[in-house]
C-alpha cells in the first residue's frame, strides 16, 4: 500500500497529491495521515520539492473542505439536510456527525475551525456549521489555511523522519499503512451499511 501511495504521488506529481488530499477531505478513502508523510518521503528523496508538497497538499485540502462550506452556506440547513439524505450514505455522513460539528462550532466559535483541522474526527465536517453560520469566507479560508498548514507540516515532517530512518522501519511501514487503510475501509463499509436518513436538524 505504501508503494501505491508513493507511486500515485510520484507518477502524478503535485496533481496526484492535490487530488488525493481533495478526496480525503470530501470522503476519506485514504487518510491524510498516510498521504502527507509519503509525500514528505518523496520530497526527502528529491523527487518533489518541500514547498511544492506543502502547496499541493494544502490546496487540495482547502478545495475539499471548502466544498462542504460552500454547500452548507448556499443551501442552508433544510436543503443541506436534503442533500445529505441524497448523498449521505456515500459520504457516510450521519445526523450525529453534523450535530457534533455544530456543537463544537457553537462552543468554540471561529477557533473551532482551526482546532477542528487538527482533529481527524471532525476535520472535514467542521466546515458545515461554519457555512451554515455564514462565517465570512475570507475568515474561514484564513483560519482553515493556517490549521491545514500546521497539520500538513506535522505530517510532512513525519515523512522526512521516515526517509531518514527508512532502513530501520521498512519492515513494518507497508504492513502498518495497509492495516490503516483496511481498517478505514471496514469502518466505511460499516457506516455505509448502518447509515440512516438525517432528520431535520435545528
TrEMBL record:
GO cellular component terms given for this protein: plasma membrane
- Which domain of life does this protein belong to? Bacteria
**Does this entry carry the keyword Methyltransferase?**
no
The alphabetical list of record keywords is: Cell membrane, Membrane, Transmembrane, Transmembrane helix
Q: Which InterPro entries match?
A: DedA_domain, VTT_dom
Task: Tell me where in or outside the cell this protein is found.
Answer: Cell membrane
Q: How does it sit in the membrane?
A: Multi-pass membrane protein
The residues covered by the VTT domain are 30-159
Bilayer-spanning residue ranges: 12-30, 50-71, 140-163, 175-193
Q: Which residues form the signal peptide?
A: none
Please name one Pfam family that this protein belongs to: VTT_dom
Per its record, how is this protein called by name?
Answer: Membrane protein
Amino acid at each position: 500500500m505504501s508503494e501505491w501511495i508513493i507511486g500515485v504521488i510520484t507518477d502524478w506529481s503535485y496533481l496526484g497529491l492535490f487530488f488525493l488530499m481533495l478526496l480525503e477531505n470530501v470522503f476519506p478513502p485514504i487518510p491524510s495521515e498516510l498521504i502527507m508523510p509519503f509525500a514528505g518521503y518523496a520530497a526527502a528523496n528529491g523527487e518533489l520539492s518541500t514547498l511544492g508538497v506543502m502547496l499541493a497538499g494544502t490546496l487540495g485540502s482547502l478545495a475539499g473542505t471548502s466544498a462542504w462550506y460552500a454547500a452548507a452556506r448556499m443551501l442552508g440547513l433544510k436543503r443541506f439536510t436534503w442533500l445529505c439524505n441524497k448523498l449521505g450514505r456515500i459520504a457516510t455522513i450521519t445526523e450525529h456527525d453534523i450535530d457534533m460539528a455544530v456543537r463544537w462550532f457553537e462552543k468554540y466559535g471561529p477557533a473551532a475551525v482551526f482546532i477542528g483541522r487538527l482533529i481527524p474526527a471532525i476535520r472535514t465536517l467542521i466546515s458545515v456549521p461554519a457555512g451554515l453560520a455564514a462565517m465570512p469566507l475570507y475568515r474561514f479560508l484564513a483560519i482553515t489555511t493556517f490549521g491545514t498548514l500546521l497539520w500538513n507540516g506535522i505530517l510532512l515532517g513525519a515523512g522526512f523522519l521516515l526517509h531518514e530512518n527508512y532502513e530501520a522501519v521498512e519492515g513494518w511501514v507497508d504492513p502498518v499503512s495497509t492495516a490503516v487503510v483496511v481498517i478505514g475501509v471496514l469502518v466505511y463499509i460499516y457506516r455505509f451499511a448502518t447509515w440512516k436518513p438525517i432528520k431535520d436538524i435545528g
